[in-house]
Amino acid sequence: MSNLDKQIRNNWTVEQTEALFALPFNDLLFQAQQVHRAHFDPNRIQISVLLSIKTGACPEDCKYCSQSGHYNTNLKKEKLMQVQKVVEKAKQAKASGATRFCMAAAWKHPPKKDFPLVLEMVRQIKALGLETCVTLGTLNEEQSLALKEAGLDFYNHNLDTSPEFYNSIITTRTYAERLQTLSHVRDAGINVCAGGILGLGESRRDRVGLLTQLANLPEHPESVPINMLVRIAGTPLENAEDLDLFEFIRCVAVARIMMPKSYVRLAAGRTQMNDQAQALIFMAGANSLFYGDTLLTTSNPDEHHDIQLFKRLGIYPEMMETSKSDIQTEAELQEKIQQQHQHLFTDAAATCSTENMVAEQEA
Ligand code: SAM
Ligand code: DTB
Ligand code: SF4
User: Fold this and answer.
1) 318 compared with 175, residue with greater pLDDT
2) Could you tell me the residue ranges of all domains in the chain?
3) Ligand 3 atom with least separation from CA of 59
4) Going by CATH, does the domain composed of 3-320 fall within 3.20.20.10?
5) Residues 229-233, mean pLDDT to the nearest whole number
6) Residue 326: pLDDT above 70?
7) Of 149, 161, 193, 245, which residue is the least packed, with the fewest Cβ within 10 Å?
């Protein structure tokens, strides 16, 4: 076992996680950067695009959510989108430079009549050469295997917060059910995307509890989204107090240290953060984000603004992994970068990373 692999642990104690949170800010960020650099290119970011394929009227009562049928949030409810419309959106996402397309549905679990349509979406989007991710609520073993068979790469299902605080936020789905879904997903051979949400009024101890749970799963989730609450009028959390951004950054840094090989995603809440805060979050080890001006029902930073931010920071988007058999020549790669230029991504990619990407493809 290499030294780096020894850092992968699934036996964190609450006290150890608390000790990381308690480090002086600079020491914590330095440690997180070291871990990050040992496993990732520190200037490369994975880009996902989100789409709500079935919006609103959700039977769950998550107190933060615009889509819960329990609260009056003035959201337009929609049935499952047509397969072709979803595929069109995925094509646009690919053209904009995304490597992963994430489809979310406001369900307790996938309904029988709609599930085959979601499988078809996964098949067609996978065939476009994009990574696929869905989040459909609770899954059983059979559904997980069917999604794997259709070509699903990632399933997103968050633990959201600590087991102790969870019941103050959600009463219609248990923590144990969430863990069970994650276990079905893992057993089916699908990559796990599981994280949480901060700013719900939870304590430091709850943030510690969330990260300890995630890091002590039998295998670390490949992807760990950290969401900052987007306050939604009409939900019980519409007036939740602001969380200190330094605490959010700490949480990202601790996630990076505890789950060294996972992609840590700066997920919802970026419109409430300035560029400098986001830069610190990347410094703390976040290496994935949602791109595009809409998340599911709320807004995300304008695409052009993100491109400019990447450019200012020398960050470039991750390209799809290419197998040895289809390594692109430098000319082909240049052409691809040139195409991306027309779709905004490029500025950042061409200025900062052409050499890096070529080197990677040739390696
Ligand atoms: N309905 C599915 C589920 O809950 O598993 C998938 C979609 S749900 C929107 C996915 C995650 O988004 C939630 O677990 C939560 O962490 C995050 N989220 C939802 N609403 C949010 C909000 N208003 N602000 C920040 N994050 C939010
Ligand atoms: C995740 O952890 N965050 C995304 C994704 N998984 C599905 C959702 C964020 C939703 C933000 C609120 C909204 O736009 O409705
Ligand atoms: Fe439904 Fe997901 Fe929103 Fe909870 S977070 S109310 S499960 S859409």
Assistant:
1) 175
2) 3-320, 325-363
3) 1
4) no
5) 96
6) no
7) 149
